Amino acid sequence: NAGVTQTPKFRVLKTGQSMTLLCAQDMNHEYMYWYRQDPGMGLRLIHYSVGEGTTAKGEVPDGYNVSRLKKQNFLLGLESAAPSQTSVYFCASSPLGGTTSDTQYFGPGTRLTVL
Amino acid sequence: GQNIDQPTEMTATEGAIVQINCTYQTSGFNGLFWYQQHAGEAPTFLSYNVLDGLEEKGRFSSFLSRSKGYSYLLLKELQMKDSASYLCAVSPKSGGYQKVTFGTGTKLQVIP
Predict the structure, then answer these.
(1) What is the mean pLDDT of chain B?
(2) DSSP per residue over A24-72, as a string?
(3) How far apart are CA B25 and CA A89, in angstroms?
(4) Which positions 31-70 of B are in contact with A (Cβ < 8 Å)?
């Protein structure tokens, strides 16, 4: 099993450009999450999904859109990138939503720079 | 809401013991996670404490006091590979991982 994978690993954008980050998991998990991590801020939830075809807003959703057309994939879109979106983005998945123990798995991250 | 506080940086010597503290204030509490995150990598799960007391897993132990809103991660026999950030995260009473709040992390440097 590959677990949770993210594409791309690195990306540099100019202000106003758009891009899509892809997250894929092969564990048949229902729940998927997108986080951003900034220095001194900790991990913050952007959007999440509780199943195929569903999405919901997290703590910092502005400027991002998501889609979960297939159970194994969760896409994060930036329609018009801004320098404030320079960050490291982590995708995660879990079989259920409840926090019971070691059941949330993180992808390796995407480092995005917006100039 | 939830407020989590942990030291920004710590330095410790190889072979020694280090304790990383985490205090939290929350309107509802279910449990507390500790994650390890090496530079440029994803967080990896270390422990999840729900009950008061100490849980030991090899060189790593985690303690929780629900009444004091306090937890610590204890690393024994430090190795150079333990140099990483350690994230404390609080899980509320209601809601799943989408409600978990992460602290800013403690960057641990292990020196020879």
Answers:
(1) 94
(2) EESS--SEEEEEEEETTTEEEEEEEESSTT--EE-SS-TT-EEE-SSTT
(3) 27
(4) 31, 33, 40-45, 48
